[in-house]
Amino acid sequence: MNLLIFEYATSVGIDDTTFFNEGIFILKALLYDFNEINYFNNEKLNVYYLFSKKFFNKGYLEEWNNCKPILLDLNSDNITLNDWLKNNSKLYDACIFMAAEEDLQLYEFTKILEDNNVKLLTPSSDAVLLCSDKFKTYSYLNNHFYDENFLIETYLIDLNEYNLSNDKNYEKLFENYSYIFKNNDKMLIKPYDGVACKGIKLISSFNEFKEELINDNSSMQKIILQKYISGQPCSVSLISNGEEAFPLSLNSQEIKFNKNKVEYIGGQVPFNHIMEYKAIEIAKKVVESIHGLKGYVGVDLIISEFDEIFILEINSRLTTPFVALQKLTDKNLCLTILNSVYDNQYSNLNILGRINFKKVGHSLKIKYI
């Protein structure tokens, strides 16, 4: 059995160390576990991983001696990672990978692998597409859980309907959306396909909203306005076989507000909270409602100051708490994912200890507590 592993930033060799250094932690967590698995379902497991040639460290050959690197120089070969996957992924039986939802990147990789009949240890392309578009996720949950109280007031604004270079169109925008701010509620501006708090800003009035649109240089075509809920940001990590989800942990998230910008800077795995079991119950219910969510899944949520739980989004990909969980679980986490996806079997995992992780500069600092 041939297994392919890749993480986008470390595969293509992105020079932005913020993305590269975060990506390498997830890749190393995957390699550590898969390096220990010699056989699966009575077949020899041959593990291969993609890595940018310009950043490859020969020490990786010794550290993960059972995993074989495939070194890429996409710029020299004048191809993209999409091209490489289209041409080569059919050589592999299964794949687990990490990429961002932005610009449908995660969806496109997933669809290529599906089209080449590669077994995914990650969610299906349909599930990824639903979760990548944050408003589609909200609409889906609103339709399926309309009688629940865990959804946050959310609006989608299609900026293609407005030529905002013309000031009169801001008046039209005001007519359509000023009512959102009538109670002076704080709102979050979010990209509809954002990741890790990127592009999220906190505003308190339509004038601040207008100012953000005027100063925005990202050429976003669609944005989400979502009511700001004060409380403890959290996530729930789960493993799913596509039908049943098995919660691993509740995790805290440390969010920093820098002026009006929102930044994710770390968290704790696992996290003890009086509402832990309720949060996990809701996350499990949400994941199980979406067909095709399998492998590792993360659900972001807020526990309000009044101990109410609100769902923010569903991450159909590996998230940073995976790095901590790989170190803390008493069984091989990646083998658990294999068993879940292939055989619908799940062995209960015990979490031994607790980890704080924090972004420091362009790296990730991990501390056992």
Any overview of this molecule?
The protein has 369 residues and is α+β, with helices and mostly antiparallel strands. It has 3 domains: 2-120, 3-Layer(aba) Sandwich (Rossmann fold); 131-149 and 229-368, D-amino Acid Aminotransferase, Chain A, domain 1 (2-Layer Sandwich), CATH 3.30.470; 154-227, Dna Ligase, domain 1 (2-Layer Sandwich). The protein is 34% helix and 31% strand. It contains 13 helices and 18 strands. A 7-stranded antiparallel β-sheet has the order 16-15-12-13-14-17-18. It has a 5-stranded parallel β-sheet with strand order 5-4-1-6-7, with helices on both faces. Strand 15 (294-304) and strand 16 (309-315) form a beta hairpin. The longest helix has 18 residues, at 17-34. It starts with a strand and ends with a strand. The mean pLDDT is 90.
Annotate the secondary structure layout.
Elements lengths: L1 E6 H5 L4 H18 L4 E2 L2 E2 L1 E7 L6 H5 L3 E6 L1 H4 L3 H8 L5 E5 L6 H11 L3 E2 L4 H8 L1 H11 L9 E5 L8 H11 L9 E5 L9 E3 L2 H10 L6 E6 L3 E11 L3 E14 L2 E9 L6 H14 L4 E11 L4 E7 L5 H8 L4 H11 L11 E6 L2 E6 L1
Parallel strand pairs: 1-4, 1-6, 4-5, 6-7
Antiparallel strand pairs: 2-3, 8-11, 9-10, 9-11, 12-13, 12-15, 13-14, 14-17, 15-16, 17-18
Helix pairs in contact: 2-12, 6-7
